[in-house]
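hi! just following up on the protien thing from before. the input was this:
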Amino acid sequence: MNYLKYLFLFLSIGSFSQELTIEQANHLASLPIKCLQQEYPNKLGQMLIDSTEILAPKKLHPAFYGCFDWHSSVHGHWSLVYLLKRFPNLAKKEEIISKLKTNLSKENIQVEINYLSKNHEKSFERTYGWAWVLKLQLELENFNEPFAQELAQNLKPLTNLFIQRYSDFLPKLLYPIRVGTHANTAFGLSFAYDYALYSKNEAFQKVIKENANRLFQKDQNCPFNWEPSGTDFLSPCLEEMGLMQRVLPNDDFLIWLKKFATQLFNKKFTWEVAKVSDRTDGHLVHLDGLNFSRAWNLYHLVNQYPKEFSHLKPLADTHFNFSLPSIVDGNYEGEHWLASFALRAYEEKR
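and the predicted 3d structure came back as:
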């Protein structure tokens, strides 16, 4: 990609208007389009029992083999469905739909289920990948187009498997995982709870509420100054806040938040954006994702409680805008997943 093309992408992506434009949507869609069926490079999260399990990524995961790793492929699919729903005239629309139909066929989803049903793969993608599957399921079910409804039906058995996995696993999790990477418990429950509400699955809602309260309700004084760790792409403090905002009644949540994150009530609160020293390093580039994670949780808070937290919107904008140019910098280390994080932040941006 030459310098002028970089400059064009920087100007168009890096100067987001209040509303996402078709031009910006096309740029963001181009990234998952490019990697959705790109098999290599690939990072498998596989446990090998014997040599018969050594297979190519596409053989192991015919639905989600692209975009470097399984979970990034899942949220790449979500990104394209999200954009198609909001932009019926999206460029390469037919190509996108064709790829989605190919990957999310009933047969391919069954292969994914077979893989996950192995005794030694019960914890595969727990709970980050699980959460993104439920996010994709919600997006498909909420998209009133025949192809999306067909794909929602195809995906549903995998979604149901993960709902059962959540229900089995959460009572066994005696202590929450508070890291800023894939295993973060709060993030893993937030999308799950969104889907539980949407699907009116009261039993699943109850499981998430009970365990979220058990794990997090007594937390106080989250150490904002400990963020970021060197390879975070999620904000441990704000992901926990985002989950509790979902499961607690409004007044109870504000009482909880006053103890958990008093500084957010301060009209002068500020927080330095996370900076990336080397975007060719697949772990260091995580910090761009952290900026988007902070942004989407701050937007979510402001949207529900504008009276108390409108002062945090500029801070969310700062984090959001800081990392936007990096998603089109030509480095696959970030490109294979950052568009999804940018869109997740934009989903909350109003």
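The two ends are 32 Å apart (CA to CA).
The chain has 17 helices and no strands.
cheers
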